[in-house]
Design goal:
Helices cover 44% and strands 19% of the residues. The protein has 15 helices and 16 strands. A seven-stranded parallel beta sheet has the order 10-9-11-8-7-12-13, with helices on both faces. Strand 12, helix 15 and strand 13 form a beta-alpha-beta unit. Helix 2 packs antiparallel against helix 5, helix 2 packs across helix 7 and helix 11 packs across helix 12. The relative contact order is 0.14.
């Protein structure tokens, strides 16, 4: 069987499974999810042994430390996967909920109800926890999922999916085993082959770097929900609590720099730049954050480094730096005249992901939140909260910066479509 036939066979089995999933009720789905969570915890040693093989591959590929960090499955992350599945089980079932209801003058009753999308392909890099999150969310929302991770995580992805399928099958013999499948090959040609199957695949969601997402969007013949990159900003307003602003900036940049909701550009109001940057500089130095700054920021930070004997990595920012998603301990800093300049910068260079203002002025915050074009806009909180789990979705299948359909973190409700159920008493036209 050649690759195209192999992908068509896999998608056929997934489509058949998607139809069988509609026959499972909420209790059945929830019991399966609880069993999946227990299986991950009970088999954590086997998961970590598989993960060790992937970590070795990642080092051989010379992946960055941030990318390797995304690959690691330690006890805390395995517990996090299990907890995510438990939280999904605890959430309301999105399938069958009534979205609208109306009765026409002729007596025809129309109900708009949520339904599964069908077969969803998830393409992602490094983070094997996505396997559990995506499969769990798709399953609860009645969708079959086909998972295509990177070759650096193949062993981790396969064992996580296998354990989930085995646990669900043992829990409920009606669970269709093909509802969760991992593409068995790392051949890159598998992706366009799979995404050409418009008769079998309903949706694709790529998760990863901009290059991956653009490549998927360019080759796919099925609909793609995406965000190309996360160029997230924090703007420190002239009326900000500077200690709060320092804590938020350090968290947004350094908590996990290799993820899409990490801050990439810091915008500082000129009125407080010479007070705020000296406060922030020691924290950035201690975290070994390299700085790409505009002329004013570099001038201030050079003085700070000399006065405080700090080792700061400072370089002049280029135009490309304002567009950059570093996914590393690198931060662009720009000093701006006011909130209007900050909003203008974000709307020019941002990616529509997550942006924050730190200010004590409610009117300024409201202006920022109204005018910034992003899927998540924060007032006095880190951009690191743009996450399905943090938004109370249990987990997320991804983050969308598209404006048609889902936007922001995508949980259960975002993984459904709808149909109209029409109840008549013999009406004709």
């Amino acid at each position: 069987m050649d690759l195209n036939e192999q992908m068509r066979d896999l998608a056929k089995r997934s489509k058949a499974a998607s139809h069988r999933l509609t026959q499972l009720d909420t209790d059945q789905k929830n019991r399966c999810l609880q069993a999946m969570a227990a299986a991950l915890l009970e088999n954590r040693q086997a998961i970590q042994e598989a993960n060790a093989k992937d970590l070795e591959t990642a080092r051989e590929m010379n992946l960055s430390s941030a990318m390797v960090d995304r690959l690691v499955l330690n006890d805390a992350r395995i517990e996090g996967m299990a907890q995510g599945l438990r939280e999904i089980a605890a959430l309301p079932d999105p399938v069958g909920r009534e979205l609208d209801r109306k009765e026409r003058p002729n007596g025809l009753v129309l109900r708009k109800v949520a339904t599964p999308i069908g077969v969803i392909v998830i393409i992602y890099e490094s983070r094997p926890n996505v396997t559990a999150d995506a499969a769990g969310l798709c399953f609860k929302s009645g969708n079959a999922t086909i998972l295509r991770g990177g070759k650096e995580a193949i062993h981790s992805n396969q064992i996580i999916a296998r354990l989930m399928v085995e646990a669900a099958t043992k829990c409920d013999p009606n669970f269709p085993q093909e509802a969760i499948q991992v593409v068995p090959t790392t051949d890159r040609a598998a992706v366009p082959a799979l995404l050409s199957l418009t008769d079998l695949v309903d949706l694709c969601m790529p998760r990863g770097g901009e290059g991956l997402i653009r490549a998927v969007a360019d080759c796919s013949k099925v609909p793609v929900i995406k965000h190309y990159k996360g160029v997230c900003h924090v703007h420190v307003d002239k009326e900000a609590d500077l200690d709060m602003a320092a804590q938020i900036a350090v968290n947004a940049k350094t908590h996990r720099p290799g993820v899409c909701n990490a801050m990439e550009t810091l915008l500082v109001d000129r009125a407080i730049a010479r007070t705020y940057l000296p406060l922030l500089a020691p924290e950035l130095a201690s975290k070994k954050v390299a700085i790409k700054g505009d002329e004013t920021a570099i001038d201030i930070l050079n003085t700070v480094a000399a006065n405080q004997s700090l080792k700061l990595s400072l370089e002049p920012a280029t135009e490309e730096d304002w567009h950059a998603e570093y996914l590393d301990l690198i931060l662009a800093i720009r000093v701006v005249d006011d909130v209007n300049a900050a909003i203008g910068h974000i709307n020019q260079y941002g990616s529509g992901h997550s942006d924050c203002i730190v200010t004590a002025n409610q009117a300024t915050a409201q202006q920022f939140m109204r005018d910034v074009d992003a899927s998540a806009v924060y007032w006095n909180a880190s951009t690191r909260f743009t996450d399905g789990g943090e938004f109370g979705m249990g987990a997320e299948i991804g983050i969308s910066t598209d404006k048609v359909g889902a936007r922001g973190p995508m949980g259960l409700e975002e993984l459904t479509s709808y149909k109209w159920l029409c109840f008549g008493t013999g009406q004709i036209r």
